[in-house]
Amino acid sequence: MTVIVFYFYSIRITLADLLDIGVRSFTAPIYYLYITNQQLAIIAAVSSIWLVNLIIPAILGSVFVLKLRFFDRTA
């Protein structure tokens, strides 16, 4: 039962997760304005870091959790 609860906690998408990429994409060009003027490149870099750090591990973790056998059917 505990594994199922942890699974649902890990796959749920909260409003903060969805707004996080928007906030980062809005504030990153402001912080990097002194380094470069290419706002599209900054937004792409921030978005790809968000993707690598949050979305890909969530997808991989979901695949591994779905392959777990929760109940032994041999008994």
Describe this structure in words.
- With 75 residues, the protein is an all-alpha fold.
- Helix content is 73%, strand content 0%.
- The chain contains three helices and no strands.
- The chain has helices spanning 2-11, 15-31, 39-66.
- α2 (15-31) packs antiparallel against α3 (39-66).
- The longest helix has 28 residues, at 39-66.
- It is elongated, with a radius of gyration of 18 Å.
- The chain starts with a helix and ends in a 9-residue tail after the last helix.
- The mean pLDDT is 77.
Kindly state the number of beta strands. 0
- Largest beta-sheet details: none
Overall body shape = elongated
Strand content: under 5%
The whole-number mean of residue pLDDT values reads 77
Supply database-style keywords.
3 helices; elongated
Secondary structure: elements and pairs:
Blueprint: H1 2-11, H2 15-31, H3 39-66
Helix pairs in contact: 2-3
